[in-house]
Design goal:
Elements lengths: L1 H11 L17 H4 L19 E10 L4 E11 L5 E12 L9 E17 L2 E16 L26 E15 L3 E8 L18 E8 L1 E2 L13 E12 L2 E12 L2 E14 L5 E15 L3 E12 L10 E10 L19
Length: 348
């Protein structure tokens, strides 16, 4: 049944509108979530070149590894602190089975830029732009056709003669973010130009995706002036909503920071909306455990999350987990004047 389901996913992609890969740890992939986060680092040491760089890597495995996403980003803050520059690449793979290669893959490589202005007292406004190349590849060698199967279970070479199919084009996204020391809210619009990604002769536009994210940081310990390393103790309730074509998703939960430990728990689904089958759109309960470890020379963060499906039938295809890694370089001369970021988003 699992093989049939994954075959349907890959084959339907030839004509159906595609969807972006999703991440449970969306705040652990800030550039993917919203271009306005580009260059917004944890520590404010922008006058030292070695302390203005951040590296982030994300991995997601879904349906027992049949769907996998690899993502990497690198961003830097300008010396005056107003500009941010970055790059983002990802690969999304859909495998049919453990004995075949990935028949359907999506790639993206983008450059990003952001700009920050102060609008009122401690309120700041960020705007971001993302430009890049988006492509999909269908590898017919990853399929197993009926004429390859024998009664003994042996898989013979296929007599079908297909070549790999690739389609791609220019892709643009934009986002904004407003925040103060406790509250933030961001909106991002991805795939503004809706590039044609059909792998057939028909037209199939990559649909625009809208992301809305907000949260409020509640300190458990009052801090004055510069925050000392290891002193971040807070609770941050968050809401994340996204919509792409006729698909929508809502994440509601909270992060608990007691540095160096980070714990998270949130629900993913649309409890107020019913799907085509008449049932409420339940998806998963996500739990997160992470480590946020500042040192004299850098900030290292790691997070591991696990999705517990809440919809009927979702357990048939196995569980989902994600791993995120991030590192911001910190110059040795910066260690005595490290200040925490002003954006109260968790995981950034």
């Amino acid at each position: 049944m699992r093989l049939m389901f994954l075959c349907w996913v890959a084959l339907s992609a030839l004509q159906a509108h595609a969807q972006d890969p999703q991440l449970s740890q969306y705040y652990a992939a800030p550039l993917y979530l919203n271009p306005a986060f580009t260059g917004n680092l944890d520590y404010d040491c922008r006058k030292l070149p070695a302390s203005r760089v951040r590296f982030v890597s994300n991995y997601r495995s879904q349906y027992a590894g049949s769907l996998q996403t690899y993502m990497t980003s690198l961003d830097i803050r300008s010396k005056n602190g107003n500009w941010g520059y970055g790059m983002l690449v990802y690969q999304d793979r859909q495998d049919l089975s453990s004995i075949s290669s990935a028949p359907l893959q999506t790639y993206q490589a983008s450059g990003l830029v952001s700009y920050k202005v102060t609008v009122l007292n401690d309120w700041k406004f960020h705007s971001g732009l993302q430009l890049g190349y988006l492509a999909r590849t269908l590898n017919w060698d990853g399929f197993i056709f009926p004429n390859q199967l024998e009664a003994s279970g042996v898989v013979r070479p296929s007599s079908e003669n297909f070549s790999s199919t690739t389609k791609g084009g220019f892709d643009a996204s934009a986002g904004v973010l407003i925040y103060n020391s406790d509250f933030y809210m961001g909106i991002a619009t991805h795939h503004l130009n809706q590039v044609n990604m059909s792998l057939t002769e028909e037209t199939s536009r990559w649909p625009t995706k809208i992301d809305v994210h907000t949260g409020y940081r509640i300190p458990l310990k009052k801090q004055r002036g510069f925050a000392r390393r290891g002193s971040d103790k807070s609770i941050t309730p968050v809401i994340h909503y996204k919509r792409q074509l006729n698909t929508q998703q809502l994440d509601i939960g909270t992060y608990f920071n007691y540095e160096p430990a980070v714990l998270g728990l949130w629900y993913r689904g649309v409890p107020f909306s019913k799907g085509p089958d008449g049932r409420l759109q339940q998806d998963a309960l996500v739990v997160l455990a992470g480590l946020r470890a500042p040192t004299d020379y850098g900030l290292f963060k790691v997070g591991l999350s696990y999705d517990f499906p809440t919809s009927r039938g979702s357990t048939t295809f196995g569980r989902t987990f994600e791993l995120s890694l991030a590192y911001q370089f910190i110059d040795e001369r910066c260690r005595k004047r490290i200040a925490y970021k002003q954006i109260p988003c968790p995981g950034l």
